[in-house]
């Protein structure tokens, strides 16, 4: 059954806005580049060229980049890393949620069945825990906690948006311990976020001794930290008093340029770290290198440096990892049996211009890269976008599962969502598409119009898995709160370049990017019920309005990279306008909206959720996700319960009780959905935006539901420090 309820969307006509604004954009009155306000590339003066020159290989890091002034990590032979002890996430206890995606497969599926469609309406708040992390009075709001707690035994373990780690009584929210990470405000990159911590059981420290069980996190200021799970005290045998400096070998940088927001997976004793490198800054940004460390000692094991693929060692004194390479900011997944970590990559620095990228970079950008955790060498690469200039980096975590093929064989498989709404199902041993889910190379608009930067003539399409998206935009899709607004959007549509998906970047006029860089699927990923073969996916339908601008125009707009003394986050930071220094162009990115009302130009819905049967390749149900209650023109809430579908960030979970739990939408609600019908059977208004993935657990026979209602500056939802936990009233067993 395939259901799309658009009646509410069309009835609302005129009251829905893109509450998330989707980008850092100029004010409504600022004159942005566009038809009648363009120029061809101007030659740079020698002063301008020098200003945006590449940094010296020996340039020192700015003060504060090496947080806590940590010494360099010692390097070891990966072969000496001891065999890993059994981990809770490999075969989770029935009542636990010991990893970000619950298990090593990142399934986001719980076998708990106490909550069902028939009783979930009785859910009540059991407790609210406050992390203590939110903007101080007068402080710029860069908060978006995005946290999913983990649960082992009778405790929740989690991190705040600023990387404090906490252990909490899972029945009442009482704080048992807190580790203060000491992250400074200036180290926040685009967003203060920490998606989860990692629970790790040592193979060298005996049970009952400190740091037998450990909690580990990567931080916004690029540290890898381990503490004892029982006491919260630093593990002295790990790194330098429990910390490792992840800025080692990264070369010149400033606080906030490089950060880690996802939990480091441990595969065969190797803790693998990636990092977010702030988008849109400069061509020679810090490296996107992927590194492995001994999870017992914190000693360096290997590096995968894209432009130096055969050198797996740390850089020598005065050297650094190759700069500007594709970075990976999404959560990674590992396979202990195969000894692989699956790394979702982005594109090289300067997202919207590819002429200066190396062949090695072009081969691994916007791809899934399977890296051998004992050597640091890729075994295979599957690319989801060729020569990406649309910021289609992969933000989702891969989900692992066993696929039962038509011939009766079982294939270890991987499910990879993308911002394009294309979902690729691969043999995780080889990276090749599953036989029943082929991938075609289809013609794409080429060669493009930017001098010296041709586009790929084809792009990959997953042809057997339902696409998370709608057909290409048409002028008749434009709408607004009045005929004048609709006319305004039609004019914007006509003025822009648009030939469907992969419309090439333009310099002399804007181009429409659809899907936009917020998805399709983003970091919330998908949930998978292996028993029934059901995938649950929520996704976005929000096009963008982009234009390359010359360096002179970029300077006029105040677009400077983060390491420039004149950098202003309000002019351009990450998602949105960017300097793209050391290239001929800057970039202006805005939602495709009526900037006077703040309403999107394409008709709703802007956010969707659906169930897909992986066996039949069919959509079981589909509906808009999010109501208009907290959204409206000029950013004013309408308080209307109409389910029109809003932009969303965060993912779903599935339970054996037949429920999907999801927040994510900009109406600040968490929902329970009947997995069979797609009907919302319970909801609650949260104290802040629910831009996180929920989780569920059980203690003493009672099932709980937890969601971090921290809000999200990017999605323009209210910020709070509240972890909200629900349960049925009274005792159950």
UniProtKB/TrEMBL annotation:
Please give the coiled-coil regions recorded for this protein: none
This entry carries the following GO cellular component terms, namely: membrane
One GO MF term on file is:
quinoprotein glucose dehydrogenase activity
Q: Which positions fall inside the Pyrrolo-quinoline quinone repeat domain?
A: 97-704
What cofactor does its activity depend on? pyrroloquinoline quinone
Q: What keywords is this UniProt entry annotated with?
A: Oxidoreductase, Signal
* InterPro entries found in the cross-reference section: PQQ_b-propeller_rpt, PQQ_mDH, PQQ_rpt_dom, Quinoprotein_ADH-like_sf
Which Gene3D superfamilies does this UniProt record tie to the protein? Answer: Quinoprotein alcohol dehydrogenase-like superfamily
Q: Which family does it belong to?
A: Belongs to the bacterial PQQ dehydrogenase family.
Which portions of the sequence form the region Disordered? 26-66, 434-457
Q: Which residues form the signal peptide?
A: 1-21
**Polar residues bias locations:** 36-47
Name of the protein = Glucose dehydrogenase
Origin superkingdom: Bacteria
């Amino acid at each position: 059954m395939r259901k799309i309820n658009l009646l509410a969307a069309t009835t609302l006509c005129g009251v829905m806005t893109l509450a998330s604004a989707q980008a850092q954009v100029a004010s409504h009155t600022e004159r942005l580049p566009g038809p009648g306000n363009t120029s061809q590339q101007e030659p740079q003066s020698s002063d301008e060229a020098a200003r945006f020159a590449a940094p010296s290989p020996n340039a020192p890091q700015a003060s504060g980049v090496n947080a806590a002034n940590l010494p360099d990590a010692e390097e070891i032979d990966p072969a000496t890393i001891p065999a890993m002890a059994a981990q809770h996430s490999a075969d989770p206890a029935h009542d636990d949620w010991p990893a970000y995606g619950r298990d090593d497969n990142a399934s986001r599926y719980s076998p708990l069945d106490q909550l069902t469609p028939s009783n979930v309406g009785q859910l009540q708040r059991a407790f609210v825990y406050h992390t203590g992390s939110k903007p101080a009075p007068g402080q710029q709001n860069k908060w978006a906690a995005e946290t999913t707690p983990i649960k082992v035994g009778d405790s929740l373990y989690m991190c705040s948006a600023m990387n404090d780690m906490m252990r909490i009584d899972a029945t009442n929210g009482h704080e048992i311990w807190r580790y203060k990470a000491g992250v400074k405000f200036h180290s926040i990159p685009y967003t203060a976020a920490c998606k989860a911590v990692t629970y790790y059981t040592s193979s060298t420290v005996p049970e009952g001794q400190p740091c037998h069980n450990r909690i580990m996190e990567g931080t916004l200021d690029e540290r890898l930290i381990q503490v004892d799970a029982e006491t919260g005290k630093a593990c002295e045998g790990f790194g330098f008093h429990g910390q490792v400096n992840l800025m080692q070998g990264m070369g010149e940088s400033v606080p906030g340029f490089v950060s880690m927001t996802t939990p480091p997976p441990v595969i065969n004793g190797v803790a693998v770290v990636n990092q977010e490198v702030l988008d849109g800054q400069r061509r020679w940004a810090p490296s996107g290198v992927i590194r492995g460390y001994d999870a017992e000692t914190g000693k360096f094991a290997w590096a995968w440096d894209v432009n130096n693929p055969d050198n797996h060692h740390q850089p020598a004194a005065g050297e650094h990892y190759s700069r500007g390479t594709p970075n990976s900011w999404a959560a990674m997944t590992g396979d202990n049996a195969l000894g692989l970590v699956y790394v979702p990559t982005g594109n090289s620095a300067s997202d919207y211009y590819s002429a200066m990228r190396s062949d090695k970079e072009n081969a691994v950008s916007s791809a899934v890269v399977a890296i051998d955790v004992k050597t640091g060498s890729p075994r295979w690469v599957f690319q989801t976008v060729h020569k990406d200039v649309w910021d289609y980096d992969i933000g989702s975590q891969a989900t692992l599962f066993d696929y039962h093929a038509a011939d009766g064989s079982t294939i270890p498989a991987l499910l990879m969502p993308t911002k394009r709404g294309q979902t690729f199902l691969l043999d995780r041993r080889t990276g090749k598409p599953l036989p029943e889910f082929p991938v075609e190379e289809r013609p794409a608009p080429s060669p493009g119009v930017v001098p010296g930067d041709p586009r790929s003539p084809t792009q990959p399409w997953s042809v057997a898995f339902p696409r998370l998206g709608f057909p290409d935009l048409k002028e008749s899709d434009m709408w607004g709160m009045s005929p004048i607004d609709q006319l305004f959007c039609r004019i914007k549509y006509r003025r822009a370049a648009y030939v469907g998906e992969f419309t090439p970047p333009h310099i002399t006029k804007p181009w429409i990017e659809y899907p936009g860089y917020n998805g399709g699927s983003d970091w919330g990923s998908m949930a998978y019920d292996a028993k029934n073969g059901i995938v649950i996916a929520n996704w976005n339908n929000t096009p963008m309005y982009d234009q390359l601008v010359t360096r002179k125009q970029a300077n006029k707009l105040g677009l400077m990279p983060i390491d420039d003394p004149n950098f202003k986050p309000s002019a351009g930071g990450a998602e949105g306008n960017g300097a793209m220094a050391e290239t001929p162009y800057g970039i202006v990115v805005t939602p495709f909206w009526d900037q006077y009302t703040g309403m999107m130009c394409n008709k709703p819905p802007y956010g969707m959720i659906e169930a897909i049967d992986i066996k039949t390749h069919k959509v079981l149900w589909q509906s808009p996700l999010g109501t208009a209650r907290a959204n409206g023109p000029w950013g004013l809430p309408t308080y209307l319960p109409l389910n029109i579908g809003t932009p969303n960030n965060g993912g779903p979970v599935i339970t054996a009780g037949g429920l999907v739990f999801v927040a994510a939408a900009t109406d600040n609600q968490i929902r329970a959905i009947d997995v069979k019908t797609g009907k919302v059977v319970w909801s609650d208004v949260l104290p802040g935006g629910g831009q996180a993935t929920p989780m569920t657990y059980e203690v003493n026979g009672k099932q709980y539901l937890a969601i971090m209602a921290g809000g999200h500056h990017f999605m323009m939802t209210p910020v709070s420090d509240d972890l909200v936990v629900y349960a049925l009233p009274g005792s159950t067993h």
